[in-house]
Amino acid sequence: MSFLSQRSLNIKPSATLAVAAAALMRKKTGKEVFDLSIGEPDFPMPPYINHGIENALKANKTKYTAVDGILELKEEICLKFKKDNNLAYNPENIIVSTGGKQVLFNAFLSTLNPGDEVIIPAPFWVSYPEMVTLAQGNPIICPMEDHFKLTPEALEKAITPATKWLILNAPSNPTGIVYSAHELEQFAAILVKNPHVWIMSDDIYEHLTYDDIWFKSILNICPELASRTLIINGFSKAFAMTGLRLGYGAGPVELIKSMTKIQSQSTSNASSIVQYAGLTALKGDMSFLTEWRREYQSRRDLCLSIFSKSPKLFVQKPQGAFYIFPRLVGVTDDIQFAVGLLEETGVVVVPGSPFGAPGYFRLSFATSAEILKEACSRIVQYLENRFV
Length: 388
Ligand SMILES: Cc1ncc(COP(=O)(O)O)c(C=O)c1O
Prior knowledge:
Blueprint: H1 6-10, H2 15-28, E1 34-35, H3 48-58, H4 71-85, E2 94-97, H5 100-111, E3 117-121, H6 127-134, E4 138-142, H7 152-158, E5 163-169, H8 181-193, E6 198-202, H9 218-221, E7 229-234, E8 247-250, H10 253-264, H11 272-283, H12 288-307, E9 313-314, E10 323-324, E11 327-328, H13 334-345, E12 347-348, E13 350-351, E14 361-364, H14 369-386
Parallel strand pairs: 1-12, 3-4, 3-5, 5-6, 6-7
Antiparallel strand pairs: 2-8, 7-8, 9-11, 10-14, 13-14
The protein binds pyridoxal-5'-phosphate (PLP).
C-alpha cells in the first residue's frame, strides 16, 4: 500500500507544467526549443507596478495582513468591478488569495461534499477537474460541441439534483471562445430555473479579447444570479504578474467567509508586498492593455495565416485569451503528435487530451512573432512530412 493518500494518487499533475518541464530538459541539452506551451504573457510586468513593491518594502509592509487581504486592495477591487464590469461589491464580498488557483481551491473546499457535482464544459482548463476531485466532488464534463461552446441543451442535460456548480470560463483557456450576450441569456434562463446550481465565473482573461469583441459577465445579463455566483479573477494575465501569485474572488458574504476560514488554515494572507503591488496595478493607467491586445491579435492572425495553408489542421479563430486550439485532421493521437513534434522540430505544444479534447492541441501565442512564425511553419511542415 502506498504511503501517499488516495487523494494524491487520484489526481494528475498539471499537463501544461509537464510539457514545459520536457521543453526545459531539451533546452538544457543545448537543443533548439520553440516553446508555445506557456500560459503567461511574455510582456514584462508594467514598470509602474514596481513602485508599489518598492514603496511597500520601504514602509516595511512585511507582516501578516488580514487573511482575506488588506482593506485598501479589497476596496480597489470593488472599484475595478464597478468600473470594468458595472457590478457592485463591498469589501466583505471579496477575498484576496495566492493566485486565482487558490480562490478556486478555497471555493471547492468550502462547498463540495463527497458526490457533489461540478459541471465543466469541455474543452476545459486542465486544473478544474483535478481540483474538484481533490475536494472529493465529481467533475461532470459537458461534452464538447461545435465551436467549443457550451450549449443550452447540453447544460440542461448536465444538471442533476447533485449539481453544485457550473464553471463558466470565457475568454477560455484553451479555446479562446467568448460568449455573446444572447448565449449568456440562454444559460441564465436555465440557471434561474435551477436555483440549487451556483455559478463559478472564471474571468481571468477578461481584458484579452480581439476584433472588437468585449467580455460580458453573466451578472450583467442576469443580476439576480449574484446571490449564487462566485467571480474568479487575478493579476496573472492582465498585468503579467504570474510569478507574484495574486488573485481574488467576489461573491456572497457567507461563501467568502467560509473561503477565508479555509485560507486561514492553509496559507493565511497572500504575500503582503504582492498585495501592495496589486493595489498599485489597479490604481494605475491600464492603457498598456490596448497595446497588448493589438500585439496579441496580430500574432494570432500570423499563426492563423500560416495554419490556413495546411489541410491537416482545422482551426477556429479565438476571440480572446492567448491560445489557439487546432484540430488535427487525420491524426488521432494528440499526445504522440506533441511528443514527436518536440523531438523532431523542437516545437512545444500541449496535447488536447488533458483539456478534454483528444485530437486537438493548444498553443500559446504569448510569445514573439519571430518564434511564432518559425514554430507554426515547423508544425505545418511536420504534419506534411509525417502524416500522409
Ligand atoms: C482559466 C484559468 N483560470 C485560472 C488560472 C489561475 O491563474 P493564477 O493562479 O495564476 O491566478 C489560470 C492560469 O493559467 C487559467 O488559465
